[in-house]
Write a structure and sequence with these properties.
- By secondary structure, this protein is an alpha/beta fold.
- The protein has two domains: about 110 residues, Response regulator (Rossmann fold), CATH 3.40.50.2300; about 100 residues, Arc Repressor Mutant, subunit A (Orthogonal Bundle).
- Helices cover about 30% and strands about 25% of the residues.
- It has eight helices and twelve strands.
- The strands form three sheets. A five-stranded parallel sheet has the order 2-1-3-4-5, sandwiched between helices. It has a four-stranded antiparallel sheet with strand order 6-7-8-9, with helices on both faces. A three-stranded antiparallel sheet has the order 10-12-11.
- The relative contact order is 0.10.
């Protein structure tokens, strides 16, 4: 996985007073930043700068950022985009956003999300609500906590994140994760579910993220 020092970020951030800005703190953490104060300047910067990620601090620009997301996605569709919006901004749907953060949050939370990125591997990143998984680096981030997973736990979480909100039967999960037609004994699956809960949940005994649906299987609630 790349370190902060090797992740190049294009940050679109205004300079208005009372705005929450992240340029200074990200630079202190070692990120290589190109900072611009408008979307048009950001598009121009792409001619001489090749970022691994684009951060749009829409809250500092007094916009919801959707038009900027569209601009950048059309220009560089393979670059992951983070959209930061104000606390009172209405919920928006933007399928081209890799991850979405609503103020207030700490710069560490933003850094945790950035650490899930590897150069040219954004296709391996899945984001569902507050849960982010980089299947290449086997790193998950949930509620500002970074977790390193085993290969099998990574595959299991990835399968569940592909179908959030759906009940996945124990047999179907076991078959897809362990790549086998033998589903007579799925206790190994239950053990791995328990490990995921211990890694991700605040209270593994009363899970909020990975739900057990009695008599059916499991459901990822994000």
């Amino acid at each position: 996985m790349q370190t902060a020092e090797t992740i190049q970020v294009l940050l679109v951030e205004g300079k208005r007073k009372l705005s929450v800005c992240f340029a200074s703190d990200l630079e202190k953490k070692g990120y290589q930043l190109m900072v611009v104060d408008s979307g048009s300047k950001g598009l121009e910067a792409l001619k001489r700068f090749s970022p691994d990620a684009i951060i749009i601090n829409a809250a500092s620009l007094r916009t919801n950022g959707l038009r900027l997301v569209n601009w950048f996605h059309n220009s560089v569709p393979n670059i992951p985009i983070c959209l930061i919006v104000a606390e009172d901004e209405p919920t928006v749907e933007a399928e081209d956003v890799t991850f979405f953060l609503r103020l207030p949050f700490t710069v560490q939370k933003l850094a945790n999300r950035l650490r899930t990125l590897e150069k040219n591997s954004h296709k391996s990143i899945i984001v569902r609500g507050e849960l982010t998984l980089n299947s290449d680096s086997r790193v998950a981030v949930f509620r500002n906590k970074e977790i390193h997973l085993t290969p099998r736990m990574t595959i299991l979480l990835e399968k569940m994140m592909e179908k959030p909100g759906e009940i996945l039967t124990r047999e179907a999960l076991f078959k897809s994760v362990w790549d086998t037609d033998y589903v007579e004994d799925t206790r190994t699956l239950d053990v791995h579910i328990s490990w995921l809960r211990q890694a991700l949940e605040d209270d593994p005994r009363h899970p909020e993220l990975i739900k057990t649906i009695r008599g059916k299987g499991y459901l990822l609630k994000v």
